[in-house]
Amino acid sequence: MKKVIKYVIFAALFFVALWFSFYTEPLSVRKEREALKQYKPEQLVEHYWSSGLQDLEANALDVASFVNALQTDAQTLREKSGHILGIGSNVCYVLKGDAENVSFSDNEFHFKMNGIDFKVPAKYIFGNTARDACGWFNIDNFQNTMDFNAVSACMNQRIKEQVIGDKAQHAADYTKFHFCGSIEVKPDAKTVEHLTLYPYIFELQ
Amino acid sequence: MFEMSMKKCLRQVVLIGLLSMLLPGFTACSDKARNEKGKIAVVISTLNNPWFVVLGESAVKRAEELGYEAVLFDSQNNPSKEQEHFDNLLSSGYKAVLFNPTDADGSAVNAKAAARAGVGVFCMDREINEPGACVTQILSDNYSGCIQLGQYFVEVMNGRGNYVEILGIVGDNNTWARSRGFHSVVDCYEDLHMLSQQTADFDQNKAMEVMESMMQANPNIDAVFCGNDAMAMGAYQAVLGAGKENHIKVFGFDGAEDCVNAIREGKVEATGMQFPKTMATTAAELADRWLKGERNLPKKLPVAVELVNGTNVSHYGHFGRLD
After folding, report:
1. Which pLDDT score is estimated for B27?
2. What pLDDT, on a 0 to 100 scale, did the predictor assign at position B104?
């Protein structure tokens, strides 16, 4: 009898140990957890866009100040407000203003301000200007350059779909826009005549 | 008169004798200074490609100018050869490695071993996916360079046509940075169709074979985008062999001399000019600063790439600007 009790206790202990050695979970839960571990540039862009946009606009240069500073002291302007990715890279800035007499043609918005012809692409948006001008992302914090470049792709997608959105269809109804956006100039530029603006904010008025 | 010239001659002989006695001393001094500063290894993925020869030789030259003894190692695009080099150099007292890796993932183990041994690793041109193992990675901004190339490609193609792409080594991040930069532009244009995408491992002969087979499978190719200039030249040879040089437009990336000349002659449309001398010089100078005790160095340092095409080719030469 004693032997039987001993066997039962051992068997119970064995099954308890076995029970805690394994666990099961649905495949969908497992996949979701693995996906969360992976790098998601969309989440990163969303985080900065929702938390940093106000500061970005507050610190942006108005177009007149930018033109004046570029002509008089480009180096100070570059050190104070510019962002340069690496050796020989263009200098990126964030500008803001209220554009008047805005026209739309060839998938681009066009306007003139302080002697500069601005274009704002509505369909073909690519490059790293939006990523580099805002200063939110440091290349040193990324595992590799592919992850860093994925941020640009996400930001450009967001600009195309959310910032520009369907404004091109209503362009004829409005001639004024409030904007805050990124531009880039050559490292040695003292004057500029044409700029391509990739907007973070582009509002019809 | 004879006495005068005799005296002059004697004086010159004495002077030359003195100089020849001093010269070994000077050489010994500079050798001693070089030995005191230590040794720097320059490990290059392959010396079978002129681009990497320029990278390696420029790194050696700058390291020597800074007073180090610099030795060049060729990994022959072989990760195990690369590991052998690291095993040797870690046991031979090298203080820093100017490193052009063979593989973004596979080479990380070598960089980590060097870091554990207190040897500073400075990556040049090619990236490894283990940023903590390197002091600094000095890299071409391939993505931005290929965005410029993509924009020019669209312009040349007038936004429509069929093209093929020849990729570099699949395990190299540069291959994908270039391809993705190019596609971030070209894929926006729905009338541009990619018919085929194949790898030729950055090799000219392989690219020629790949292009030949792609032309056989797709007789309606209008352009080819190649991940480096060696492959662009290989693709051009295939195009020339098929008698389609007036129809198929070739695009490369690197800024190699033969490709720049081909652009000048109208054989190749464009390339992205990288600056291997800038990368190598910067790597050697950062290694010098690190060896002098500076620790606040950038982890990654991109170097801008410039578009070279028929309109601006006169400003460019062998892996750089002429001015």
Report:
1. 45
2. 87
- Quote the minimal CA–CA distance from A126 to chain B in Å: 6
What is the model's pLDDT at position B35? 56
Residues A192-205 have a mean pLDDT of 94
The yes-or-no verdict on residue A100 having pLDDT over 70 is yes
A127–chain B Cβ distance below 8 A for any pair: yes
Cα–Cα dist B292/B282, whole Å: 15
DSSP lists the bridge partners of residue B321 as B316
pTM of the model: 0.81
**Is A126 in CB contact (< 8 Å) with chain B?**
yes
Specify the pLDDT at position A205.
79
| B interface test, pick of A87, A90, A132, A147 with most B CB neighbours within 10 Å | A87
A residues 133-162 closer than 8 Å to B (CB) = 139-140, 142-146, 149, 152-153, 156
| Closest-CA distance of chain A to residue B228, Å | 18
Amino acid at A191: T
* Closest CA–CA distance from residue A184 to any residue of chain B (Å): 13
Q: Give the residue from B141, B296, B319 with the most A CB atoms within 10 Å of its CB, the best one to mutate.
A: B141
Count CA within 13 A, CB hemisphere, residue A183: 28
Tell me which residue has tokens 């666990």.
Answer: A23
Residues near B111 by beta carbon (within 8 Å), at least 6 away in sequence: B99, B101, B121, B123, B128, B130, B133, B134
Handedness of CA B151, B153, B158, B160 (dihedral sign): negative
